[in-house]
Amino acid sequence: MRFPHFTFALVVTLLFVSQPVQSASTTAAEWYSDCAAYIGVLTGTGDGDDLEITYCMGQTLGIVSGLETGSRIGALSMASLLALLLNLDRDSVFQIFNEVSPEELLGFCKPTNATGSQLISIVADYLRRHPDKAELPATAVFFEALQEAYPCASDPQNAGPQEPADAEQN
């Protein structure tokens, strides 16, 4: 018996919806463990094979991209909610939203030439200085580490994007 595409999609959706949700959040400690070999390469204290390095780099860049995308989605959702709740002119709200840079939304201004290796070094160093944060979600630790390393110029307390002194260039 053939199922129409809609019926099949509905059945598959219901199967996934009815399954218990399991946390897919990687802790900072798990990220550090996954990247230990590459962190050793970056600090000159170890070596790693291509597969370990590629996995770490992919995971790191995925987390940073997720933060960047998530900040835009979150801000857009909040702008939509405010426009609805406060009966604001939607066109004006979205015009203002589009004028805000992704960096302003996110709270850090990563230089366009920042490398994945630099990001790994920044987060690894942050975790070494803040071992109490190891069990937090990796995204939270990345967020804090990158805000510390790359403050935005619009923050009156900071001069602008900075290159971390201890980040290696690779």
How would you characterize this protein structure?
- This protein is mainly α and 170 residues long.
- The chain has one domain.
- Helix content is 63%, strand content 0%.
- α2 crosses α3, α3 (50-85) runs antiparallel to α4 (90-99) and α6 crosses α7.
- It starts with a helix and ends in a 21-residue tail after the last helix.
- Mean pLDDT is 79; it is low at 1-23 and 155-170.
Summarize the entry for a quick read.
The protein is built from 7 helices and no strands. With 170 residues, the chain is mostly helical.
Q: How is the topology of this model organized?
A:
Elements: H1 5-18, H2 28-43, H3 50-85, H4 90-99, H5 102-106, H6 116-129, H7 138-149
Helix pairs in contact: 2-3, 2-6, 2-7, 3-4, 3-6, 3-7, 6-7
List key phrases describing it.
170 residues, elongated, single chain, mainly alpha
Helicity range of the residues?
Answer: 55-70%
Strand residue content: under 5%
**Taking all residues together, what is the mean pLDDT?**
79
Number of helices: 7
The shape is elongated
Number of domains: 1
Distance between the termini: 57 Å
Structural class estimated from helices and strands: mainly alpha
H/E series: HHHHHHH
List how many beta strands DSSP finds: 0
Low-confidence stretches: 1-23, 155-170
Q: C-alpha Rg, in Å? A: 20 Å
Task: Please give the largest β-sheet.
Answer: none
